[in-house]
Design a protein that fits this description.
With 883 residues, the protein is of the alpha+beta class. It folds into 5 domains: 107 residues, Sandwich (Immunoglobulin-like), CATH 2.60.40.10; 201 residues, Jelly Rolls (Sandwich), CATH 2.60.120; 118 residues, Jelly Rolls (Sandwich); 355 residues, Alpha/alpha barrel (Glycosyltransferase); 75 residues, Maltose phosphorylase, domain 3 (Sandwich). 22% of the residues lie in helices and 29% in strands. The strands form 10 sheets. Strands 21, 22, 26, 27, 28, 29, 30, 31, 32 and 33 form a 10-stranded mixed sheet that branches. Strands 10, 12, 16, 18, 19 and 24 form a 6-stranded antiparallel sheet that branches. It has a 6-stranded antiparallel sheet with strand order 14-13-17-11-20-23. The longest helix has 22 residues.
Length: 883
């Protein structure tokens, strides 16, 4: 009898999905797993793969693989078929021992063959293009199931947004389905298991439809409605399998006259402005069998090319806990109805669910949402502009549980108006929503303000990762700005596994790039105001390179990198044509704002965010030089040596031009700013001349000292000013800048009560008033890019090879911080660092996952160690002061 190995495979995944998944599109998917502890050198891994077509006999196969083949292992068997179900388990074996089997991974292919997507999009026959304040339709059908099935699936999509109900019960947990993609090119088709919800006999299937991004008004300065179309429709394909081997299919269609539609109780819905619900229009039981739908209209088919349907790689938007009311304050009373302002304690993307009671038919309750309060205690709605975030409920006289369905809000405070009597915490829940990504990064320190700042970064990321990476979740914008994620991607992908989420968005970036001839300001792109004609601008367009490279560094996935290579190359080749002969990007884009440069430089006037201290040409050239160098690394990683050599020559040419144009002989730069020196240092634009690098670091430190701890950078410089100081040996100045609580600074926002990171350093002024500019938000993640420095410098953890095959552990204590902890779940397992600094001793504990190697550098850089998988603790005399 074999002995039992204590180490087991854990966390099995397919492709980049976080766990069990239905409806994937890869017929030869890659498999990954980790190990619970250090694996014996002579151990091997065995996979048990069970394959089964619906209601068919399962086939079990054993596949031996190397223990080091546990990250993105190519599919080891014949390709899978549409609808095929797979169960994978893994265990370790030795000559005389075997581990327990891992927990099983379940996944299933969706409708991978386009012609098998046989349903049609159906909805109301009439056009609703005359207004965007319109009722939202319902669609229903009934069908007979002869016996309880062994398996049933609903394949679901919509022109607009859709929620499905089967026999009176909600299908799935997702909201805002199918999500936002470039609908002209592609639309997501989601898969749901409805086996247990079906019953022998008659079944009823109902769908709520909402305008969403497809038909609703989106964008700022008035926005646009009907961007993609003016008719809503649902695609529903039901496939049922029985124990006797028989099958049944139900398709949404207009020809059999069994699908019906009517306007529902949602009388208007908009993602930005809010939702109106009239309970008097409710039709009880409409998703139950036997409902009388004789007054409903038959549906019409809405033309759509089903070949544009695709199986999602992005995670769905789902609920992630609740925030209870912290305070409830009465603000007024009129005719027996009261108004209340509720503080839910956390600014983020969420919705209020009300327990409606004691209302007469026709009585109305409304909920207004806002991020902050004005000095007089009222909601600050001015920053929302058109996106007023106002939901209303009209009662039918019955008690009800009501939550808006097709809208979502960014807020901390809500004003409930028209409530009957006392409002209590029991009358409401506040549900948090964002895309269902896996959190893989953690951080903590001995400084509670720093910890709160890190929490704020997390909350801003969650709030803005809702189907696409948006800029803000509250006002009339909420677009996929390329510049914000270009800067924040390294932080985002450390904190959460964003591989699928951002890869999905990059598909649309490439689509927009081909359509518009450049990487647009935001994706999916819709022309608005001064942004109507996309032009190549630095930082924003550089997302075509920086985001794919970030994903590759964290995942090590060359297949994914290859799919994004054309996007990056097209950007490099486009901008190459805009350079002056000396390699400087000084061509001005043909639109009103020109290059955005160090956008929102804190010296810029409230209504002129583009007016920065640092030359725009300097910023543009620096970022493009960095992008070209990253693209060289892409070409090398994908074994394209000729392209790597060609673009390396371009990178060197730009670097020489940068030095000649923007760096004086004495080391001063033409823009004597924190931003200019930070970019030159971190982007390695001076490394060929060490004396210039030293002078730049010293000048940057002097500028920080002269600022008395106040940040002097906007979007462009902020992610790099602390790394530049650290890199050039000015750690004390880095900590003084980081820990300042003077405006502008990171901790100023914390000191002012911020629970997310702000768009402007002074979104709230020191006197508690809101910045007077027409553009301010209290939930932008861009300035939260400082968390990358927190992870690498305070925590001490940095990847040095793609996929974290090698990484560096080098915490650098300072600023009175005496303890630090950070971790990141790499593809191979958890990499973790915990350290503490006492008066005379520095102690550090390091976890290195299987298949990786870590270089550990003690504070002061006096000693280093190279270690492989394991858990280590070291102590040595303190090289730095506790203070």
């Amino acid at each position: 009898m074999s002995a039992t190995l204590s180490v087991t495979p854990v966390h099995l995944t397919v492709e980049h999905y976080p766990g069990d998944v239905l409806g994937i599109g890869q017929t030869v998917p890659r498999l990954s797993w980790q190990y619970s502890d250090v694996v014996p050198a002579d151990a091997k891994t065995e996979l048990e793969i069970t394959r089964r077509m619906p209601a068919a006999q399962a086939v079990v196969q054993s596949v031996p693989v190397g223990r080091a083949d546990n990250v993105l292992l190519p599919w080891p068997l014949t390709p899978l078929n549409a609808r095929e179900q797979v169960i994978v388990r893994a265990r370790l074996t030795q000559a005389d021992a075997v581990s327990e089997w891992s927990a099983p991974l379940h996944f299933e292919l969706g409708l991978t063959v386009a012609f098998e997507r046989e349903a049609a999009f159906v909805g109301p026959a009439q056009l609703d293009g005359h207004t965007d304040h319109r009722p939202q339709p319902l669609v229903r059908t009934e069908f007979v199931v002869p016996a309880k099935p062994v398996q049933a699936r609903l394949y679901l999509s919509a022109l607009g947004l859709v929620d499905a109900e089967l026999n009176g019960q909600r299908v799935g947990q997702d909201i805002l389905t199918p999500g936002w993609t470039q609908y002209d090119d592609r639309l997501e088709l989601w898969t749901y298991d409805i086996t247990q919800q079906l019953q022998a006999g008659t079944n009823a299937l109902g769908f709520w439809l909402g305008d969403g991004w497809y038909r609703g008004r989106v964008g700022f300065k008035g926005g646009q409605a009907n961007v993609y179309g003016d008719r809503l429709g649902v695609f529903a394909q039901v496939e049922i399998f029985y124990a006797d081997g028989s099958e049944q299919q139900i398709f949404s269609n207009s020809y059999d006259r069994q699908w019906y539609t009517v306007n529902g109780p949602i009388t208007a819905s908009n993602l930005f402005e809010g939702e109106d619900y009239d309970a008097r229009l409710t039709q009880p039981g409409w998703t139950m069998p036997g409902f009388d739908d004789s007054g409903w209209d038959t549906v019409a088919q809405i033309p759509f090319d089903n070949r544009k349907l695709e199986l999602p790689i992005l995670p769905p938007v789902r609920a992630h806990g609740q925030h209870p009311a912290v305070t409830i304050a009465k603000t007024g009373e009129h005719k027996g109805r009261t108004n209340w302002i509720v503080d839910f304690g956390q600014n983020c993307t969420q919705r209020v669910r009300l327990h409606i009671h004691n209302l007469a038919a026709g009585d109305q309750v409304s909920i207004q949402h806002a991020e902050v309060l004005e000095k007089d205690g009222s909601l600050s709605t001015r920053p929302l502009r058109r996106g007023q975030q106002l939901d209303t409920y009209i009662s039918n006289g019955e008690d009800a549980l009501w939550e808006p369905r097709f809208t979502i809000h960014g807020f901390r405070y809500a004003e409930v108006k028209g409530w009957p009597g006392e409002l209590t915490a029991a009358d409401m829940e506040c549900i948090v929503y964002y895309s269902a990504m896996k959190q893989v990064g953690q951080f903590a320190s001995s400084n509670q303000l720093v910890n709160r700042l890190h929490d704020n970064v997390l909350w801003s990321m969650r709030s803005n990762f809702v189907s696409i990476p948006t800029d803000c979740p509250q006002r009339d914008e909420r677009l996929g700005w390329t510049g914000d994620i270009s800067l924040f991607a390294p932080t985002a992908d450390y904190l959460y596994d964003t591989s699928s989420f951002l890869s999905n968005w990059l598909v649309d970036v490439r689509s927009d790039q081909k359509k518009w001839g450049t990487v647009p300001f935001y994706t999916p792109f819709i022309p608005f105001a001064e942004w109507s004609s996309p032009q190549a601008i630095a930082i924003w367009g550089d997302a075509a390179v920086t985001v794919p490279w970030t994903l590759y560094m964290n995942s090590g996935d060359k297949q994914q990198l290859a799919s994004q290579y054309a996007l990056a190359q097209a950007w490099i080749d486009e901008v190459r044509g805009y350079l002056s002969p000396d390699g400087v990007w000084d061509r001005k884009p043909h639109y009103s704002l020109g290059q955005l440069g160090d956008w929102l430089d804190p010296t810029a006037p409230p209504d002129d965010p583009v007016k920065a201290m640092t030359q725009k040409e300097l910023v543009a050239t620096a970022f493009f030089a960095r992008s070209v160098r990253l693209f060289v690394k892409m070409a090398q990683a994908l074994d394209r040596p000729e392209e790597a050599e060609r673009y390396e020559r371009l990178a060197q040419h730009i670097g020489r031009g940068f030095q000649h144009r923007f760096v004086h002989a004495d080391g001063r730069m033409t823009s004597d700013t924190q931003c200019a020196y930070a970019l030159a240092i971190v982007f390695n634009l001076l490394t060929d001349q060490p004396e210039l690098q030293t002078k730049a670091g010293n000048r940057l430190a002097a500028l920080v000292q002269a600022s008395h701890g106040q940040v002097s950078t906007g979007f462009a410089g902020t992610p790099y000013v602390l790394p530049a100081l650290t890199q050039t040996g000015h750690l004390q100045e880095a900590y003084s800048l980081f820990l300042s609580d003077k405006c502008p600074s990171w901790l100023y926002q914390v000191k002012m009560g911020g629970t997310t990171t702000w768009e402007r350093w002074d979104s709230m002024l020191p006197d508690g008033s809101v910045n007077p500019g027409v553009m301010t938000s209290f939930n932008h993640y861009s300035l939260g890019s400082v968390a990358a420095w927190m992870h690498s410098t305070i925590g001490g953890l940095t990847a040095t090879a793609p996929g974290w095959r090698t990484f560096r552990v080098a915490p650098q204590p300072g600023g009175g911080i005496t303890q630090g902890q950070t971790s990141h779940e790499t593809p191979y397992g958890l990499a973790a660092v915990t350290w503490q600094l006492r008066a005379d001793e520095f102690q550090i504990t390091v976890t290195v996952p299987n298949g990786t190697t870590a270089t550990v550098v003690m504070p002061g850089g006096t000693a280093s160690k190279t270690v492989t998988a394991g858990h280590y603790t070291w102590s040595e005399p303190a090289a730095v002061s506790v203070q």
